[in-house]
C-alpha cells in the first residue's frame, strides 16, 4: 500500500472535522480530512424526511460560516441543513477525501500510522472527528421477534409511508423518539410509545424561545468542569422538543389524549409480547419536573435582572396514566413495525491505541488524550453543551488547532474569515 506522510490526519469529514480543517487551512498547516462517505452523509442519509433542527438557526455558527438567512429564530429543515454544510465546504475548499474509510490507527515512530482503504498515512497528529453516533443500539432479544414485524433503528426511519400498514411501536422517548411519534401521529398512524427517562423542555416561555433565555443566562458558556454533574453531563439524554413548523412543545400527555398509547420503559419482548416497567407515571412526572425547573431558573433570571416579560401560568398535566399495561401482545395490537430510538454506542474498534475506559469510551481533556498527538473532536460536552453541535464546535476546533501549532488560536466569528484575524 502507498504510504504518505502528513503532519495532521483528521478522521471524519462532518462539521467537526471540517471545522478543524478550516482553522488549519488558515494557519497554513498541511493536513488531510478522510471521510468514509460524504460531508453531509449523516444529515442526508440518517435523518427522517421531516427532520428539522431543535435549536434556532442563529446558533448555526461554523467557523467563518455563520447563519446568514432571513429567519434566525426559525429552524432549518433537512435540505436546508445539507445546503448549509455544503456551503461551508465550498467556502474554503478543504483537503477533503471522500469515500476513504480508515481501518486502523496505531502508534508508529513517534507518531501514528493510519491505514485506510486507499493507502497508509503517517502523521504526528491524528484527530478523531467521527462523532458520537458509532453503532446503533438494538437489544439482543430483537432477533427473536417474528420477522414479519419490521424493525428499524431511528437513523433508518424516513417517513410513515415507508413503513408497512398497521400500528407502530416506538421504543424510546428522547428527541428522536418523541419527534418520530409526532410524525407518525400526524400521518394518522396508530402509535404505541415506550416512555423512558428523557427530560423535556418547553419551546417558548414568557414570550421567547427558551434557547434565547438560556443564551442570555450564559448556559451555553458553561464548561463541563463547572457543570454540577461534571463528566456525568455527557451521559444525560437530550431534552425532547421540536423545531417543526416554527417550533413547539412535545407533550407526550397530549399525544395520549389524542390516541397515542403510552407505556412504561420496555424491559423485553418475548414470544412477541412486550413487557413494560411500572414507571410510566414516574417518567412523565420527571420530564415535567425538569421542564418546570428550567422555567424556574428563567423566572429567577428575569427577576434578578429586572426584565419586563409577560407571565405564564404553571403547566397543568392534561392527562395522567391509570396504571398502564404491564404487557402488550404485538400481533393482537396490530403492530407491524418497531422503531428503536434508544441511541448509539461508541465503536472505536479500529483505533489500536490505549486511550479507552472499560466502557469503550475515549478518555480525554478538551479532546486531548494522554497519547501525545491523538485527540477527539465533536463529542457531547467535550467542553460545553454545544461541542457536538453547530453552535460550539468552532470553539473546540480552535482549541485543538492551537494545540497542534503550539500557540492559542482565537475562535472565529462572523468577521474573522481572513487569516489576518487569527494569527
Characterization of the model:
Helices cover 23% and strands 21% of the residues. With 423 residues, it is of the alpha/beta class. The chain has two domains: 3-134 and 346-415, FAD/NAD(P)-binding domain, CATH 3.50.50.60; 137-340, FAD/NAD(P)-binding domain. The strands form seven sheets. A five-stranded mixed beta sheet has the order 1-9-8-7-23, with no helix packed on it. A five-stranded parallel beta sheet has the order 6-3-2-10-24, with helices on one face. Strands 12-21-13-14-17 form a five-stranded parallel beta sheet. Strand 8 and strand 9 form a beta hairpin. Helix 1 (15-26) runs parallel beside helix 3 and helix 1 (15-26) crosses helix 8.
Number of strands: 24
Strand content: 15-25%
Which CATH C-level class of the largest domain is it?
Alpha Beta
Helix content: 10-25%
With strands numbered from the N-terminus, the spatial order across the biggest sheet is: 1-9-8-7-23
Give the integer mean of the pLDDT values: 95
Low-confidence stretches: 418-423
Structural class: alpha/beta
| Relevant CATH superfamily of the largest domain | FAD/NAD(P)-binding domain
Radius of gyration: 23 Å
Structural domains: how many: 2
Main sheet makeup: 5 strands, mixed
Query: What shape does the CA trace take?
Result: globular
Second rung of CATH, namely the architecture of the largest domain? 3-Layer(bba) Sandwich
InterPro entries: Auxin_biosynth/cation_transpt (IPR050982), CHP04046_FMN-dependent (IPR024000), FAD/NAD-bd_sf (IPR036188)
Organism: Gluconacetobacter tumulisoli
GO molecular function, one term: flavin adenine dinucleotide binding
Keywords: Oxidoreductase
